[in-house]
Write a structure and sequence with these properties.
This protein has 248 residues and is an alpha/beta fold. It is built from eight helices and 17 strands. GO terms for molecular function: DNA binding.
Length: 248
């Protein structure tokens, strides 16, 4: 049996997930948590589960706050409506990341992924399992951006490039550029490396939007949609850039 915990502050969502998990005979639900405060108290006073299904945004904070206060060896499948937290999730024992509404096939796949990381005797080195998870991590598919007092979801396939300017990282679409909460280093870890490439310290580009590539005197990339500044491939990145283009 897999001892499992649900962290979810929306009661209908918690009940739905509980019903979905009841279809898996190997899952043993040990508790349901609704807040950061309750979570810290529960983990302090109870044996930790093997697997956690956790929403990210709770009424009194982020579920990350629980695991930053209480160390746990449990693995976490995050469930949320937005995936701008992907990077932090994978740094906190995350084995998968399910976007709401959760589909049956996605839930089943996440559970099977967790089981595949476990040896037959349910032992295993946590660090070894983490390395396997890192190799199999989910890539960022959409980003939540703020426009004044409004929020907008931008699909990463709509982004021609990410670029830094005055210590802020922006994403460029056909409409305009939007500020993000990421750094370029963080984005490198969670973007699809088949589509996105870091050409220099300032730009990550999307291969789907490459319009032209000049090779003399330097490698310069033109995108269908880009900021005013030229995009030049760093000399030490030219070989990797050409290999990436062939791979795409």
């Amino acid at each position: 049996m897999i001892r499992t915990l649900i962290i979810e502050d929306e009661k209908p969502a918690a009940r739905k997930l509980e019903r979905m998990l009841s279809l898996f005979p190997e899952i043993e639900l040990v508790a349901k948590i609704e807040s950061v405060e309750e979570g810290v108290e529960w983990f302090t006073n109870n044996d930790h589960p093997q697997l956690i299904f956790s929403d990210i945004v709770l009424g009194d904070g982020l579920s990350f706050d629980i695991f930053e206060k209480i160390a746990t060896k449990a693995f976490i499948i995050y469930t949320t409506a937005f995936d701008q937290y992907t990077l932090k999730a994978f740094k906190l024992n995350s084995i998968d990341y399910l976007l709401k509404p959760i589909l049956d096939e996605d839930l089943s796949g996440a559970i099977e992924k967790f089981k595949s990381f476990l040896p037959d005797d349910n032992s295993g080195n946590v660090q070894e399992i983490k390395q396997l998870i890192k190799k199999d991590k989910t890539t960022l598919s959409r980003i939540l951006v703020k426009i004044g007092y409004n929020l907008k979801i931008v699909q990463t396939h709509e982004v021609s490039c990410f670029f830094s300017e005055n210590k802020i990282v922006y994403l460029q679409t056909s409409e305009r550029s939007y500020p993000s909460d990421f750094t370029l280093d963080e984005l490198e870890e969670v973007l699809d490396e088949k589509k996105f490439f870091r050409v220099n310290r300032q730009f990550i580009i999307n291969s789907d939007y490459i319009k032209n590539i000049h090779t003399s005197p330097n490698y310069k990339v033109e995108l269908n949609f880009q900021p005013a500044e030229e995009i030049t491939v760093s000399r030490d990145r030219v070989k990797d850039f050409k290999d990436w283009l062939v791979g795409n």
